[in-house]
Known about the structure:
five-stranded parallel sheet, 15 helices
Amino acid sequence: MRRSLIVGVLVVVVLLEGAARLLAPHIPGQLVWDTQFTQDKADQIAAADLVDVVYVGSSVVNAGIDPGLVSANSRFDSGYNAAIPSTTPSTWKIWMRDLVFPDLCPSVVVIGISVRDYNDGNVGIPFDLRSYLPSAGRLELYGQFTSASLEQQIGRYSAFVRIRSRLRQPEKVARFLMLGRVPGWPATVLTPDGRYTGWDDNEFVDPSPEGIEQLTTKVFVNFSVGGPEDLAVRAIIEDAQALGGRVVIVRMPTMNELIAPLLPSGQDDLDKFERQVEKLGEDYDLPVIVYPDMDDNATLFGDLYHMNLAGTTEFSTRLGSDLDRLVWPSDGARCGTRPPAPELAVLP
């Protein structure tokens, strides 16, 4: 009796694992990093070879720079889009130290800056750090295991463990398999070199009242530049240079004429941002690439600052040519070393 029970249990386990392995490639697994974007990129970076160029920034860079197109128009053979959506330089700095510098060892770092990213008063900044800093996937890098990171270890071998939280919602599994999306279930749509393709098919539409409210009350509220976010970009520059790498600053194209009225001081704030980007280049003697003729061209954008496929294609092609002209790869670039302990800032 006991033997038949054990055999029955084993059969059930094998069947569940087999079914999970069939489903796992088609539905998102349990998160151990703070977002699906961070998790997918951490997985890609872990499996990647060293690259010549990395691109860092927010979703504006993640959607807007195609590493393959840049490489096709420059001397650089390889690149990876390491940008993380819904983040600002405060997070980029730590992400670069955690994974990008140690694992990809870039000889060139391209920092793409948008007015959306640079506001020290952005009320969302503490929240993206609060979720990123203590995420289980990140802590595991530093040998600090949690129950979630233990599940991740087991999940490397067991598809059932990896997706079991999804299997508790069979109706959502069925919907995701049919439609490819379910509210609350992430689908990042990343290329192998890290670019997000979700904006490719978008045509520009005027922002909704809800979108305008989000920008004016959170992203652009208390607009100020030259403080902590600027210091975070400077830290990335100095980290890259300390490792022997080259750095390029890129001011990302935006729909400036529509953004300016949403800033507290209008065009004056936009001008402050532009001057601060220029000052970064001057202070570190870096190339600053700007394509003002791409600003305010609605055919190139999906919204106020995310470029669609037409914009990404034009921008990446031009960027490749300019990188080829302005920057030589650094033969002396070295891999970074992770800090001895993770940065766990105390946030307000």
